[in-house]
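Thread title: Can someone regenerate the structure for this chain?

I was given the following input by a collaborator and told the matching structure tokens would be attached. They weren't. Posting the sequence so someone can regenerate them.
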Amino acid sequence: MDVLDLSKLSLAELQAGYNDLRIDPVEVMEITFDQIERVNEELTALYDLRRDASLAAAKEAARRFRDGAPKGPLDGVPVSIKDSVNASGMVWRHGSKIHGDGIVATVDSPPVAKLKAAGAIIFGKGTMPDFGLSGSGVSSCYGIVRNPWGKSWNPGGSSAGAGASLAAGIGMMSVGTDIAGSVRLPSSHCGLATIKPTQGMIAHTPASDVRSPGPMVRHAADLEAYLRILGGVQAADRFSVPVTEPERGFGEATVAVYGEFGFGPSVEPAVRQTLESAEATMARLVRRVVKGSNHFDFDAILPMEDSFKLRGWREYASVPQAMRANTPAEILAWFTEAEGWDGDRIARFEAGIAQGVAQANALFVDADFLLTPVMPVVNFPVTERGPDPLNPLRHCTFTAPFNQSGHPAAAICAGFDARGLPVGVQIVGKRFDDIRLCRLAAALETEIRGDGWQLRDWPLVPRE
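Best answer:
Regenerated them for you:
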């Protein structure tokens, strides 16, 4: 086996290989770290790497498989976690020099606790942009995270290192977090699959009603298994909810297609063409595909942007004065207006968010699922914090509404543009319909790949 072979394996195929002793967890971990050594310096995707501990854990997993007694469903499976996901003994920096040397976690976050209980081997952490407040890989702490599909192009964010490393064949899954699209955007940029679940279905700390962890993978067929392992109620997250079983399959579903929501940047032709192709393929999987008609009647991203600005200001203000000078000027200029906001100003944007949630709910009046772009652009330069550098989350118009509304949303790679850059589509489900959403996403990906689209190997040697 080599890294190309490993990159093509689904989780089920890897598990089967472990169980019948055709695949050695130690070899898998050696391949993983060999690829890290080969590409990570130029991608800036991973940090806090644990080679010795990971190899030791892989040897223990190999012994358990030989004994016929694996620890759990992810025994020996190499995974990474995002900077912002705490794991005991690993460093949290939130992507920014403002936090100095970072904080060494003393408690496992709920996703990490679930991974460890299932036997997964957490080999390192993924880099991210400052505060998680841009859909990019630009970080004052780590530098520039590069996309292996083209190093001059952005990997997306804020789960930037996860996207870049997985596309380069490193690990089987990475736990990212999503507050405005932060697992879906890098999945689209990097040709991956992911799900932001129903809010609370994967618990996290500190508890949030908008931020959700989500598994990022190379193959959508893996999403359901990871959701089941990571999901469920945990006392530490008061918003956590159980993983629910679907009452029926997706074959009788109605899917509404939205090429725009009535606000936000215009959609690039390559994105629109990819959506149209995915729509035609979707029609073979479900009972009915219709054009969505219940658009937003205001610019729903604006109140969300205000909430992100307030979040940024509060993080900035929480650190000692001497450290604040490390904040990137562009990010500071974007959120500093929140310094003087009073209760009335905050109440206005909260009312706007509530209005947006109501209108997001209305999109499902005559549909079981929505099919949309992930973002209006294919990509943007690696050195930029967004297509609009002055407004780093403006391109989250298709993703951010569903963080606020709590709907589950999956992203898959649906094609490539003329430059060979991946283009994703988003499938959104009703709340608590996550399992059926995972199955529909996997079926759509399988159909698209079976259509003979530009299927290609992962960029295991990063491309110029």
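The CA atoms of residues 449 and 455 lie 7 Å apart.
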